[in-house]
Structure formats: C-alpha cells, structure tokens
Amino acid sequence: MAGGGEDAAAARNKMVVLKRHVTGFPTEEDVEVVVGTVRLQVPAGSTSAVLVKNLYLSCDPWMRGRMSKHDEGVTVPAPDFVVGQTLVNFGVGKVIDSTHPEFKAGDLVWGMSGWEEYTLVSQPESLFKINHTELPLSYYTGVLGMPGLTVYAGFMEVGRPKRGDFVFVSAASGAVGQVAGQLAKIAGCYVVGSAGSDEKVDLLKTKFGFDDAFNYKSEVDLAAALKRCLPDGIDIYFDNVGGATLDAALLHMRHGGRVVVCGMISQYNLEEPDGVRNLFCIIPKAVRVEGFNVGGYLQMYSRFEEQMSGYIKEGKVVVVEDVVEGIESAPAALVGLFSGRNVGKQLVALPRG
Amino acid sequence: MAGGGEDAAAARNKMVVLKRHVTGFPTEEDVEVVVGTVRLQVPAGSTSAVLVKNLYLSCDPWMRGRMSKHDEGVTVPAPDFVVGQTLVNFGVGKVIDSTHPEFKAGDLVWGMSGWEEYTLVSQPESLFKINHTELPLSYYTGVLGMPGLTVYAGFMEVGRPKRGDFVFVSAASGAVGQVAGQLAKIAGCYVVGSAGSDEKVDLLKTKFGFDDAFNYKSEVDLAAALKRCLPDGIDIYFDNVGGATLDAALLHMRHGGRVVVCGMISQYNLEEPDGVRNLFCIIPKAVRVEGFNVGGYLQMYSRFEEQMSGYIKEGKVVVVEDVVEGIESAPAALVGLFSGRNVGKQLVALPRG
How far is the C-alpha of A66 from the C-alpha of B277, rounded, in Å? Predict the structure, then answer.
C-alpha cells in the first residue's frame, strides 16, 4: 500500500481559483490561475484517498451556477464555489498514488476533481475507472463521461423515444446535444437541432446526421422555425437552453409529448429568469415536462459505458471536441461556453508527461 | 323503437347562446338566454340519437377557452363556440326519446349536452348511463362526473401518490380541488389547500379534512405561505390555477416531486399568459410537470364510478355544491367562476317536472 511517505517529491500545482462570486455573465477576471505546490503522495493517515494528475478538465455550463453566491435555502444542484478555492468539475486523470483499495498508481480515471494540475480526491466514490483506454481519453469528459451519461439517462429514461418520433434538440452541437441527436437517430427518430452559428448547423447536418437544423440567431420567429422543420410537431424536446426556445417548443408539442429538461443555459446568467408563457399548452396536449440530472443515474454507468463505447467503435456516434491546451487557457474556455464560442464539447488538455 | 312520429308534442326550449366571442374576463352580456321550441321526439330517420331533458348543467372553467375566437392552428382542448349557437358542456339529464339501442326513455344519463332545457344528442358515445341513482343526481356534474374522473386520473395516474407524501392543491374548494384533497387524504398524504376566501379556507379544514390551508388573497408572499404550511416541501402539487401559485410551488418542490397540471384558471382571461420564472428548479430536483386532461381517461369511468360512489357512501368523500336554479341563472353562475364567487362545485338546476 502506498501513501504517507515523509520524503515524497513536491511538484508545482497550478490551480484555477474563484476570485469573486459572479453576477450576470462570467468573465475571465472572475477567476485566476495561481501556482501552489503539491506533495506527490497521499498524506500519511489517509486510508481511502487518491492523488490524481489531471489530464483533461471538462468545461460544463452547470459550473456557472456554482460561481454565484446563493441565498441560504435556495435549491442548487451543488454548493457554491468558495472565493479563493479551486473550481471543481468532472475531469480525466491518472492515479499517482492511492490508499484506496480500488485504485492504484497508473490507473486512468474520470470523475470529480479540481481545476488544477493535481488533485487529492478524498471521496473516491466520485471516481470511475476508465475501461476503454483504446478510445481517446478525452471522451471521458464528454460522450463517455457525465454529458454522455446525462443524455443516455435523460433521453432514454425520461424521453422514452419510440421509432418515428419527431425529436428536437437545442444547443445541439454541444457536448450534450450532439450525443442526444445521435442517440435519437439510433432510436429511429426524425431529429432536428438548433445551434447558434451556420458552422454549427452545418456540423449538425453533415457530421452528426441530424435530419434538419436551424441557426436560432438568424430566425426571427423560433416557433415558425420549428413549424418549418417539424410541420407535424414535436414528440420529444431535449431542452438544453430554456427561455425563448422552450417557450416556442411548448407551442409545438404533439399530444403526449415529452420535454426532457436537461439544462437552461440561456437562463444561467440572468438576474431574473425569463418567464415561460406557453406552459398552458401542456394541458390539452397532455405533455410531460420533466427535469432531471445525472445524479440519479450514476448506477447505470457501466451499462452506459459498454453501450456507448460500442456505438463509437461502430461509427454510430461521432464526437466533435473543442480542445484548448494548458490550464492558463481554462478561464477563457469556461467563459466562452456562455457566448457559444465553443464548437462541440469544450475541454482543456493538460500536459500528459 | 321510438322516434320519428309526425305528431310529436312540441315544447319550449330555453337556450344559453353565445352573443359574441370573449376577450378578457367573460361577462353575462357575452351570452343570452333565448327561447326556442323542440319536438319531443328524435327526428325521423335518426338511428342513433337521444333526446335528453337536461336536469343539471355543469359550470366549468374550461368552458372559458371555448368562448374565445382562436386563430387557426392554435391548440385548443375543444373547438370554439359559435356565435348564435348554444353553449355546450357536461350535464345530467333524463332520456325523453331514443333511437340508440343503449338508451331508452326514462334513463338517467350524464355527458356532453347543450346549455338548454332539451338537447338532441347525436353522438351518444359522449353519454354515460347513471348507475347510482340512489346518490344525488347532481353529483354526476362533479364528484361522479367529469371533474371527479379528472381528479381520479390526474392525481392517481399522473401524481402517483405515496403514503406520507406532502400534497398541495390550489383552488382547493372547487369541484376538482375538493375531490383532489380528499383523494389525497384517502391515499395517506398530508394535504394543504389554497383558496380565495376565509370561508373557503374554513371549509377545507373543517369539511374536507385538509391538514392545513391558506387564503392566497391575504398572503403577501405565496412562497412563504407554502413554506409555512409545508416546511419540508411539496411532493405533489395538483395545479388548478397556474400563474403565481405555480411559480411559488416550483420553488418549493421536493426532489422527485410531481406537478399535476390540471388547469390554470388564473390565466384563462389574460391577453398574454403570465411568465413562469421558476421552471429551472425542476432540473436539480428532478421534478416532473405533467399536463393532462380527462379525454385520455374516459375508459376508466366504470372503475372510477364504483370506487368513488363507495367513498361517498362511506363518508370518505363529501361534496359541497353551489347550486343556482333555472337556466336564467346560468350566465351569472358561469361568469362567477372566474371571480371565485362560487363555493364548491358550481351547477345549475333545471326543473325536473
């Protein structure tokens, strides 16, 4: 068993820490990269800790919520980040040292870690061993990680697709959207996506196999765009954006339709959320609007990993990533999510040496 | 077989007809009572029509939608009423003449009929025979009719209550709300209701067995009222009103909670619906918001009628009705729904002689 040596080497540890709580759109100045040091061993006395060298940091919209200061009692998916402390999110890494029986030095893992070069993980139940090392490791920040599992659970378990269903996916070229669209195609659905640039719309149609797509920024009337692309209405709307797009989709749902509410990125930076005015449509059309988060579905990870890695190997699911290099690039990559600057899954690659 | 006689008696037939399509709150001047005549036999040549003498007309909020003129292509639960034609809704009546094999003169029925003294029902599939004539016939406009079946389907099938669940019902003393609260108590839930007067709040607690209740008109902060009455949150919100009450309830749902969206009476008279701002809460708390209407559940009517009539006989479900007499009183009774003037199920009794 490793851990606890007195003479462990120390290493530089660059970290992205929160400089101030955020109101409105986040900026690069809300965080800063600071340099610390880390001992390259699990501290003496720890019996179930894992020291991870981070290889890929995942940039995900849900981090925005944790950058705000919430009033006590407000429901949040996870506690607020603390000013002066390192940001936390999913990532991919390599085990350097471990006192946990399930992990040993050299293991490749994904799970919750810090936005830093090395993280001492004291709750290794949030780490998963990477079984398919023949695939790009970075996929475990996306299609094979939290976003992929989110779609798998949300689309299959909450959306319950049937062959021939008309599916609409917003933020469709992003980490979640691109997987949602491709799983919908595998399920035999007709799939339309929306995205925020012509380049992304093109990706949807040519790379990800969407049947149709539109650039929501160049549409005057979102409801009309939906009616044009889905004249018979929507059976499943996989919602990543909320706001005006959700409102337009509600008008256009078919009887018995499902709105799978995965995220509302259009709302995360608003002082007051937009009002959704068309919710009444769910009564005559018996529509189910269901929120979900990946937390409830971690137990299905193994099944998911096997199925999704199979799809990738068969070419049924393809991946587009937007990779920046080095932890100094992380703040801009995170901030860019909220203007849609990323094309595909946004992640940060750290040196592997 | 009856029907078709040349020498059938004619009778006076007073009818409530739409005078003009409605914008905003309906008024008594939007409809008028006109006097016609009716032959007291099914016309010659009809092979499946039923002539009904109406005994009770049901006043239900959903009629408001049909009083508007909707643009083509807008989803509505039922077609707009036509100016100059009789309003249509559920009612209770007695068969006078029938050429339909399942109905004969003297049968007591409930179902879709006109707001008039006699209705020739040409689609008798929307009529149900009344099996429990030992109970007040008027109950078939409420607890044993469409509102009762609505609750039964919505609360049991969509809400899926578990013993110990915390349940909130809005418009709780109305036709639907009073049944929802009592079914929730039978299911072993803790039940809180909101209503629009102290008299109604008193009814909820003393007559219908709600555990707690509040007058939404005298609360400054609906979210605070919910927190006071349901400090541990809401598992099932049975929504009859939409708008601000729905928004407050969304803030206060428990993980895995269900919002059963049955109606949105607060919204029916607005030019533009209120925006619901707290929908994002459904993501971290994995809340299901499901709209439904009774149309999908008519096949469970027999099972429902047996169960509900049993509850009534055992005293487990009690009924409060607000009955006005005579068709001339119908317009005011209908309009009064939207200011909450009614206490309990609003209906109109017509002469039985």
Answer: 20
Domain boundary at B260, B278, B295, which? B295
- CATH number for the domain spanning A63: value is 3.90.180.10
The CA distance from B78 to the nearest CA of chain A, in Å, is 9
ipTM of the complex as predicted: 0.91
Asked if A283 and B273 come within 8 Å (Cβ–Cβ), the reply is no
Residues B115 and B154 in one domain: no
- HSE (side-chain half, CA atoms, 13 Å) at B342: 32
3-state secondary structure of B102: coil
Per-residue tokens: B255: 């993980």
Domains held by chain B: number: 2
SS3 content of chain A, % helix, strand, coil (to 5): 30, 30, 40
Interface probe for B, chosen from A226, A238, A271, A279 (most Cβ of B below 10 Å), is A279
Percent of residues in chain B assigned helix, strand, coil, to nearest 5: 30, 30, 40
Cβ-Cβ contacts under 8 Å, B277 against chain A: 272-276
* Residue in chain A lying closest to B281 (CA): A75
In a domain, A98, yes or no: yes
Side-chain-side CA neighbours of residue A100 (13 Å): 22
Residues A150, A132 share a domain: no
State the nearest Cα–Cα gap between A78 and chain B, in angstroms.
9
Q: pLDDT tens digits for chain A (353 residues)?
A: 454 445 678 999 999 999 999 999 999 999 999 999 999 999 988 889 999 999 999 999 999 999 999 988 777 778 999 999 999 999 999 999 999 999 999 999 999 999 999 999 998 888 999 999 999 999 999 999 999 999 999 999 999 999 999 999 999 999 999 999 999 999 999 999 999 999 999 999 999 999 999 999 999 999 999 999 999 999 999 999 999 999 999 999 999 999 999 999 888 888 888 999 999 999 999 999 999 988 889 999 999 999 999 999 999 999 999 999 999 999 999 999 999 999 999 999 999 87
Domain range for A131: 10-141+320-349
Interface membership of B289 toward A (CB under 8 Å): yes
